[in-house]
Amino acid sequence: MTEADRQLLFVGGAGDATLAVDVVSTALQQARRRGLRIHVTNQEATLAATPGITAQADAASAVDFSTRGASAAWAQAQAAAGERYDVVFGVREMAQEAVAEVAEALGVPGNPPQAVHRVRTKDEARAHLAAAGFPQPRFLVCEDEAAARGFLAETTGPWVVKPRDAMGSEGVTRIDEPGQLSAALAFLPGGGSFIVEEFVEGPEYSAEGVFLDGRPHVLALTSKELLPPPNFFEIEYVIPAILPEDTAREIEEQVVAALTALELRFGQFHVELWWTGRGVVLGEIHVRNAGGWIHRMLAHVIPGLEWFGLVYDDVLGNPVDREALKPVRGSAIRFLTPPTGRLVAVEGWDEVLSHPAVIHAELAVAPGTVVAAHRSVENRVGHIAVGADTPEEAQALARKLESRVRFVTEPAQG
């Protein structure tokens, strides 16, 4: 097989949201620039709903990544029929276990499936990190409200109630006293077990990075602003986070140590954390790129960066200039949170779209849309991402542009 025949198996394809399609399209473009042929797999309905992604691939197959072992069995059958995959990769959160299983089955670089399962199961990740000596909030996996109330009685609030396995802050609620528990449980998606844990006081950040030669490499830290409790809806990111150098260094060291302790070694990572009076307290850990258009923001902050391309380069043995992988500019994004009700008009949006510093802006509502209460990232109705010379300038500009947008609403009927 010649170098031109090297192939990427992209497991899980893209979701049908604008952001998901943009992420995967970017990842596939960067694969093309490295001469990779591309085979995309996805669930049948989502494959059909994302024709733009299929058009970028050399082949596409309907394989359900949510069924344990299905993707690995399909890949092994393909290999037995003569196909060869040099790189196995994927970006969807719910497909990461399938990505790891396929890589292991084919004998190509990837994360151990058990390590991916561990970080995707929040209580298992918490327990593993605590056993390795990393500060973690006390928590309990609960099967019912009685168990949760027992935990509340034994600990000091506030607390966080959340699903064991979800993303995008779905179903996550802060409660300050036991009387709020029933409402928090009603907010959980679906049934089954859930987690109650101590609330961590302190500003929230995340670390964005990539594994090179099996070791974590932090590209940048992201600072966050959230809506006030009880929910955890993020309304601002700034990259790189505006932090003292020694604080940033300690955060990066803790992130690298935690990823190593969790036996992760491949692909991208997005690690959520808090900076507290006792230092770094790690939150959720993901073996994928960050959402929220951070992939575009990083490309501005680190000129020439191809975040997905670094994963391919690492597998293919292409040279990587690590000294060039450092932030030299700033970027910020504001997620728009209009008042609830029926939208009558949006004023000032054209000014946003015409601003030369805007990296990406999108409005997902129009007059007539009923704006619901903001309870998770799925409720984001729009965003404004900008680039500037410094993170401080980017933050100020994003907030200024957001202030120019006015949502006119009226009470929704019925």
Automatic annotation (TrEMBL):
Nucleotide-binding found in the keyword field: yes
Domain (ATP-grasp) spans 126-316
Question: Which branch of life, at top level?
Answer: Bacteria
For this UniProt record, the keywords arranged alphabetically read as follows:
ATP-binding, Ligase, Nucleotide-binding
What PROSITE patterns does the record point to?
ATP_GRASP (PS50975)
Record PANTHER family = ATP-GRASP ENZYME FSQD, FUMIPYRROLE BIOSYNTHESIS PROTEIN C
Q: What is this protein called?
A: ATP-grasp domain-containing protein
> Which organism is this entry from?
Streptomyces actuosus
Starting at the broadest rank, the lineage of the source organism is: Bacteria, Bacillati, Actinomycetota, Actinomycetes, Kitasatosporales
